[in-house]
User: What shape does this take?
Amino acid sequence: MTYAPRCPSIVYEVFLDKIDVKSEEKPLVALTSRLPHLKSLNVDAISLSPIFASPEPMRMHTSDYLAIDTCLGNEEDLVELCRQAEALGMGVILTGVFDHVSDEHPWFQDALKQVPNDPHVPLEKRTRQFFLFGKNDEDGYEFSDNNIHEPKLNLANSAVRRRLFTGEQSVLHMWLQKGVTGWRVLRAETVGYSILREVSRGSWTVEGNHYLLGDIKGFADRYVKDGLLDGVVNHYLRQAIIGFFRGAIPARQLARVVHDLSTRYGTGACNRSWNILGGLELPRLSTVIQEPDRLALAVLLQYTLPGAAHIFYGDEVGLRARQEESALVAMSWDERDQNKDLLSYYQKLGALRGMFPALREGQWVDMTPAGEEEIFAFARVTHAPEETVLVAINRASQTRVRKLFAPVCDLPDGLEMIDALSGKRATIRSGTINVQIEGFGASILTPDSASGVGADMHRGY
Assistant: This one.
């Protein structure tokens, strides 16, 4: 059987505690009632913040991987969310923090009472080796983030890996069998290269197509090329996009970043990664790019560059947080508090992404002119030339005119291209196209294969 991961096209990330604070229902139930809103955005995957029992509000270190925090709901609530999401064409992705646990976790509590290889403790109950204790009691144990309440797991221990990833009753398997469609592994680089390979293999053994994503803050080509992960949370691309719209880098450098990602990761892995700009451990996009016009262009790139478009809950309605505050503010479902124009913009981009296959699975082709500062341009192409999409954005406040060269086969001379945003037309001439882009504007151009030049040619594909 060929492994074919279920990869999302548009991801909606939720911090459950804040998704509907006025609801009398538990957050998992409240989220289930809001699925029609997500469907209107053409979302096909929901990424949940950590949901497992924990003594701290972010639940970054769990006291039980097999139990849902009671303030969020229960196992039945999660199963029902998965069932209703599936009926609407959406998967549910859980977030796992596997490099450490809470010091309240039973494994750690038992470990404190044990000595190494204690013959009085049954083998299956020995958990001291699950952690990184020193040779002597006074040496203590290793912990994460300089926090003694976060003991590090010894992932080199095979028994730990069986309980977490590879065993038939492992954490990974249990929740996939409950209807979850994928896992996002936070701090994936701390889990380790060889161990991620076991995690990946463990996900393959559960019936169905599942998705394994790594949250890696850096360039991560080795992780995806070697098959450890289906994709990554693309923090590397985030730095480039934000840098471009804040004036820190020119368009040509942004194009170089995307070129490196496309060639080193490969088209498939790039398309399976997430184009994140804000999220769980990040500031909201609106606090990083504060000008509405530039923010809109950054969002457009999330939807048109290789990778899954990523929405952090509330961004689509203009939910804001002050720079010094946490991004985890309460979602408002009162339409009077929502930016309806921004919501319509997200809905339009979601519809376009669903309409054009090249935006979901196409190869990226650079069209940004040499030495270009303001205009970032590229094509997305598939095996079918009539599916080609040309994208150009202008970060400057003034109108810019450019002749762009499109190194894309089978765009015949005289082919008319239609702008999906404005309805305006432009014509291919010997593989080039002249574009006039207004200040803080963009064009998403697709072939008009139904009429004129190119109709007969494209019909043969």
About this structure: The mean pLDDT is 92. The chain is about 30% helix and 20% strand. The CA atoms of residues 188 and 244 lie 27 Å apart. The first helix runs from residue 27 to 33.
